Amino acid sequence: MSRTDVPRKLKITAPLTIGSALVLLVVAFALSLMVGPVTVPLADLGTNPVVTEIRAPRIIIAALVGAALAVSGAIMQTVFHNPLADPGIVGVSSGAAVAAVLAIVTGASFFGQWTIPFSAFVGALITVALVYLIANSRAMDGRGADPATLVLVGMAITAFLGAVISAATANAPQDSELRSVTFWLNGDLVSRTWEHVGVAIIPIIVGLILAIGGSRDLNLLLLGESTAQTSGLNVNRARLILLALAALLTATAVAVSGTITFVGLVVPHLVRIILGADHRALLPTAALVGASFVIISDTIARMIFSPIVLQTGVVVAFIGSPIFLYLLLAMRKRRGLGL
Known about the structure:
The protein is mainly alpha-helical. The chain has one domain (5-336): Orthogonal Bundle (ABC transporter involved in vitamin B12 uptake, BtuC). The chain has 13 helices and no strands. Helix 11 packs across helix 12 (279-303). The N and C termini lie close together (12 Å). Keywords: Cell membrane, Membrane, Transmembrane, Transmembrane helix, Transport. Belongs to the binding-protein-dependent transport system permease family. FecCD subfamily. The chain crosses the membrane at residues 12-36, 56-76, 88-110, 116-135, 147-173, 193-213, 240-267, 308-329.
């Protein structure tokens, strides 16, 4: 697709696609509020305490987490020029997981019920800073960090932190702590409250707005570093700001939901198939679809084996992994055909 084709395609397909994604989100949100061990009629959604105190905050967290992870994935795939990049590529999820696991295993409680979310958030940000300290060694001479270097450093740190998690889990003093670690690592939205919503909503909403505002920079990065610089973009600064936004979104999501995978991989690819790569439409649509994806997965987790509740992250992986495998094989086939 040429640069002149993008606006024309957006005028035709973007409003319809974004509108459809918004309708899907509203329907998924309403149905998720209604269904459960206790079915609540649509007319009673605003007054039933099961909805207002239990389901609503959980579903809002699911929507925020899905939107944050989807947009983070789209940003990282563009900045790294890597279609397989996702929010874990720079170690954000692993850093959050290590801090949370250590807090669980050691029994830390310096912030009460907020100890684990706070630890996860701090661990994610520290890991991102460490990745940049290592990968940005080239920045000392003004050249900035190579995206491939960032990916490799992130993968190495993720592997190292995974070993730390395994060691901490193996030495958990009590079985109850081991169970808590397992649930957190697989992503769980059980017992989310309005306080969790209060923690997540401002960073994620602000991060989403700023990310969508950076659509022009992302579109220029798609054209290549040389073309982007010729167009007046400070590539190094733009890359740093965009990755910082992705880190903020992912760290906040992981802090309130645990580790949920595949959202940042699958959703951006699905949206690109329909809209193409223009981030003016890609990012808002990915946010809406990501929110719906996690809400639907969470509803399935609550309902499929009721009264047994699966973890949301497990259901997301069950749904996301075959979709991603299909997309990967389809991309390889298209390349083999020269399409």
